[in-house]
Specification:
Elements (H helix, E strand, L loop, with lengths): L9 H6 L5 E3 L8 H9 L4 E4 L6 H14 L4 E7 L8 H10 L4 E6 L3 H9 L3 E6 L2 H10 L3 E5 L14 H11 L4 E4 L5 H10 L4 E3 L1 H4 L8 H9 L5 E4 L7 E4 L2 H11 L4 H4 L5 H10 L22 H22 L3
Parallel strand pairs: 1-8, 2-3, 3-4, 4-5, 5-6, 6-7, 7-8
Antiparallel strand pairs: 9-10
Helix pairs in contact: 2-3, 2-14, 3-4, 8-14
GO molecular function: nitronate monooxygenase activity
Protein name: Nitronate monooxygenase
InterPro entries: Aldolase_TIM, NMO
Length: 328
């Protein structure tokens, strides 16, 4: 597939990339080969810091990514409350010591990390599930925001606002560049996001189902075969909703919590180590694993760079056709 004409937006200009297409920072999947392939095609690839067991391993992964592409790429640093939190300070130093200048934060507030990153010339993109959180992140000083609609994989928040409303609401409220996330898998989605006021899209599930994605082929085949109906929302009674693939494990989690169970009753079912086995071994019922409603739009497993090119070409075509079709 031939290279797509550059699609410039305030987001691409801010981060020095060619196309406003960002690869989601997915746990266990955001490794060098995938991130480099997305960046080499003109998008923004993202290495996931906590996929690496230690900060030293993250340095190695960043070095591997830089050997595969000379284009900009970012690192995702997910910040979540924990009894035994990861050594975030050491991970931050691993990021800046290797010369990375783009970081995506998610989970808790990025504010405790911003001074350090700003002092080292790192621009932060913070992932938010509501306009109010995006405004707080903007006030705190992030460079850009990723707005996650209810369609997304992982944690969509508790407001249940889909992108069709959330994206233009964010556009009305924010003064910094932002990208839309949740439900995006093709050029129609990118075109729609731009028309709604976003400056690009973040795609996780679409890139999870690419040739460079380091997950088992069984996972990719399931995504291709699945529809938008094949996800579960777990932890709803706990006000910590997560969208995951529908399987025997997530069905059981939903049942236990709906019957009045507590987190302790499902703790073993939702262990991250079990979800990792799904990606590594292809046992689709080994644990829970995140996937978005966008799987209903995914019908193949192409190279990640081809996904970037295809999405941008389709967006150009969709926007041009719309203009012609509605011309006076």
């Amino acid at each position: 597939m031939s290279a797509a004409s550059a699609l410039r937006t305030p987001f691409t200009e801010l981060f020095g990339i060619e196309h406003p297409v960002v690869q989601g920072g997915m746990m266990w999947a955001g490794r060098a080969e995938l991130a480099a392939a997305v960046s080499a095609a003109g998008g923004l690839g993202v290495v996931t810091a906590l996929t690496q067991p230690t900060p030293a391993d993250l340095v190695t992964e960043i070095t591997r990514t830089r050997a595969l592409t000379d284009r900009p790429f970012g690192v995702n640093l997910t910040i979540l409350p924990s009894i035994n939190p990861p050594p975030y300070d050491a991970y931050r130093h691993a990021i800046v010591d290797t010369g990375v200048t783009i970081v995506e934060t998610a989970g808790a507030s990025p504010e405790p990390h911003l001074d350090f990153f700003r002092d080292h010339g790192v621009r932060v993109i913070h992932k938010c599930t509501s306009v109010r959180h995006a405004l707080k992140a903007e006030k705190a000083g992030v460079a850009a925001v990723s707005i996650d609609g209810f369609e997304c994989a992982g944690h969509p928040g508790e407001d249940d606002i889909p992108g069709l409303v959330l994206v233009p609401a964010a556009a009305d409220a924010l003064s910094i560049p932002f990208i839309a996330s949740g439900g995006f898998a093709d050029g129609r989605g990118l075109a729609a996001a731009l028309v709604l006021g976003a400056h690009g899209v973040n795609m996780g599930t679409r890139f999870l189902c690419s040739q460079e994605s380091p997950v088992a082929d069984e996972v990719k085949r399931r995504i291709v075969a699945a529809t938008e109906l094949d996800t579960n929302l777990i932890f709803r009674p706990l006000r910590n909703t997560a969208r995951v693939a529908k399987n025997s494990v997530s069905d059981e989690v939903v049942r236990v919590l709906a019957d009045g169970g507590s987190f302790a009753d499902v703790r073993d079912l939702v262990a991250g180590s079990r979800g990792r086995l799904v990606f590594e071994n292809g046992d689709l019922d080994a644990g829970i694993w995140g996937v978005g409603l966008a799987q209903g739009l995914i019908r193949d497993v192409p190279p990640a760079g081809e996904i970037v090119t295809r999405v941008v070409q389709e967006a150009h075509a969709v926007l041009a056709t719309a203009l012609r079709g509605f011309a006076a």
